[in-house]
Each structure stands twice: as C-alpha cells, then as structure tokens.
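User: For my dataset I need records formatted as: sequence, then structure tokens, nothing else. Please produce one.
Assistant:
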Amino acid sequence: MLWFTEAHTPNVNFSIKISRHLHSEKSEFQQIDVFDSPEFGRFFSLDSVVMVTEKDEFIYHEMITHVAMAVAPEIKRVLIVGGGDGGTARELARYKTLEKIDLVDIDRRVVEVCREYLPFTSCGLDDPRVSVFFEDGVAFVAGKENEYDFIIVDSTDPISVGEGLFSSAFYKSCHKALKPNGILVNQHESPYYEITSAAMKRAHHRIRESFPAANCHVYQAFIPTYQSGHWLFGFASKSREAGFDPLIFDAAAWNALGLETKYYNTALHRASFALPNYVKKDLA
C-alpha cells in the first residue's frame, strides 16, 4: 500500500492512497510527480504539494476564470501567469469572444509532463489562441504595458519559484500591464492555517497598495485537496471607478452563453464574496 503525504502544517498531514506512481523527476526548478489514486484519480504535485487532481480540479479552474469573465464579458486578451497544467486555459478557451490567451510558465517540464499525463487539463493548451512562453513570469509581466484585459495569477504557493509572484513589484507590474478597465485575479491561499493565512494577508495588502483599494475584493471556494479545503481568490480592478463591484454583473447574459460548469454558477458567484467573519477580520 502506497500513500502520498503532503504536510499542511507541522501538526497536520494530508494523505492520499495511491495505486501507481507514474512519473517522478527533478526539473531545473522543482520536483514533479504524477500519481494515480482510487479516490482522486490522476493527480500531480510540485515539491510534494498537490497542484491538480482529476476529481476536484474543476473547482479551482472554474472559480479562477469565470468570475471575472462574467463581470467583464468584453475581455479579449488574457495573460495566465503559471497555469502550466492547462486547466485555466481550458476554461478560458470556452469563450468564443476571446482573441488571445498568453500563458507564461517558468518550467517547461511542468507543461510537458502535464501534456503527457493530464489530458483533462492540458487539452486547454491546444486552442490556437493560446501562446505558451517558458519564461520567468515576473520578468515577462514587467515588460508589458496596457496590453491585457485580464491577468490570472495561477501560481504555486509563495515559496521557491512562486515567491516572486506574491511580491509588491509583481503586482505593480500587473497593474501596468493591464488596460484601463483590466482585472487581476490571483489564487490567494487558504485563510485557515497560520502559515497560509499570513501569505494571504500579505498578498492582499500588497495588491491593495498597487490597485485602488476600494476595487480589491476577495472571494472563496472549497477545494478538498488544498490546504484546509477553504481557498481564497483575489479580485482587483484597475478601473478608477470608486468601489468597482464584481457583484454587479449581467447574470442573464452569462447564463445565455450556455457554458456547462460543475461548480460555478451565477448565484454562487455572488455568494462566494460573502466571507466568514474570521476571514473578514484578517483582511481588514
């Protein structure tokens, strides 16, 4: 009997029974592993942290994508920073109105391994509108100005190669790279454990420094294989319109698109911004 174990805190481990260890390698940047499991299907990890599982990946990828797309259907050009598994690109590619989807990931091997073993997410990379760049995302964004309608920071945790994607300099670069009405969405870490909560609060504070503070919001989703299962996303608008509100959107128009989703819907869109009191206190 084989088990994969991820340390959530020094006092908490999360384990998944595995049936096969399909792939293991140390890339230039991180340890990459792919497993099959009876409960979560195929999954892959980076540096022993679960990134994607076949059973619950749809929650993360739908929520990091569809919230902003429902709020701003005029989005045409999108940048994904990270996201080498292809799941975020897959969700974006469902929108016929998008003209360009750039994806920048520092680790070529993540994309290649996911193409080989995770077709359920990497299929998104095959859309002709998707261009993949194997570069440092921090440097890539720093060279852009007024170019994207929507930037998605689909990063690993703020350690190792992902650390720079949680810096003040990076968020300022994202602000510069966005068009005047552009939107930034980032994975915001878990609010539950002390370590991840500290990262969440730090990211939120830095985004508020880079974007109009009134236009920075946080929403949540529940993802079983991520630390604590309670996960947050940041939503920031470059627009100087006071109090830009992601709850003001045309739900009927999004529903009319006929996109079949497993987690996201327009009622849940609104509900996801209703945060527990302990999270609101930490964000204040």
